[in-house]
Amino acid sequence: MSDVDRRRAQARLKAAQVEYFPQFESVTWYKEPHLRKLYAMSLVLMIASATTGYDCMLVNTSQQFQRWQQFFGPDISDNNKLGILINMFNIGSIVSFFITPYVADHFGRKVAIVLGCILMIAGGCLTGLCIDFTMYIVGRFLLGFGNSLSQMASPLLLTEICHPQHRGPVTAIYNCLWNLGALIVSSIGWGTAYIDNDWSWRSITLIQTVPSLIQITFIWWLPESPRYLVNKDRNDEALAVLSRYHAGGDVHNAVVQFEFKEIKETIQMDRDADKATSYLDFFRTKGNRWRLAIVVSLGIISQYSGNALFSNYINLIYEAAGITLQNQKLAMSTGKTILDLIVTIAAALNVDRFGRRPLFLISTSGMVVAFACWTATGAIYENTNMTSIQSGYAQLVFIWLFGVFYDIGFSGLLVAYALEILPFHLRAKGMMIMNITIQAALAVGKFVSLHLLLFSTMLMLNPVKRTRLPGTTFHVTGCLCFFTPAGMWSN
Question: Which of 349, 449, 487, 448 shows the shortest CA–CA distance to 408?
Answer without folding.
Answer: 349
